[in-house]
# Entry
Amino acid sequence: MSPAAPQTAPENASPAAPARLSLAAYNLHQVAERISEMLIYAMVVFSPWAFGCTNSRVLPNWTVFGVTQAWPIWTMNFAGYLLALLLLAKLVVRRFTGYQPPRWGEAVADDRRRLVRFLARAVTPALAALTGLILLFCLVSALNARSSYRPELFRFDYYQNSLAWLPHSYDAPNTWLAFWNYLALAGAFWGVRDWLGGKTAGESRAERKAAAGDPGRISLLPERLRRLLWVLSINGALLGI
# Structure
């Protein structure tokens, strides 16, 4: 029996990536990255036109999860939820395969950058914990609401089963509205943050060439950030015109 052919690592995989990273898991991570990029661009382009140039009479408000609000808000919310799901898929691949995609801030050249990296590693979990606590507070307040406001009757309808020692709300519908909106904002924030921090295949190749003595062309900004700024600038110019 002939020996098996050696498997080559993906082009922009980290050199420390373990051998158990399968091609399917790598492709799943890359597909999630590409969809995240396209979704972020779509959100950047869609949001100012939808919120600044639409009339609610063109399309009626949408009622989702028992909450009614303008359709552009629900559209952006669903985009935020999808970004969060894509981020979750990427984290699952990294967690269970050990794959660490090349990211900015990994190479530490001096003590000052080392300190910045240490602070970033300390602040990021704290920010994630605060995000989770805010969402949990809103969720508990909505589930434990003491009343709902009826604007058409100018009155509150009180509930009997709320617990006073837990966070609670006096307007359950608006609290649910805040929870779903904040959940989408959190998903969008962390999804964009994770995507922006990654390096493209071209940047990984340039880094390997620089390590081999070929400096090549050096850019002041990461490629993904440059693309996002171009989309923002062109869309803003068209909107202004």
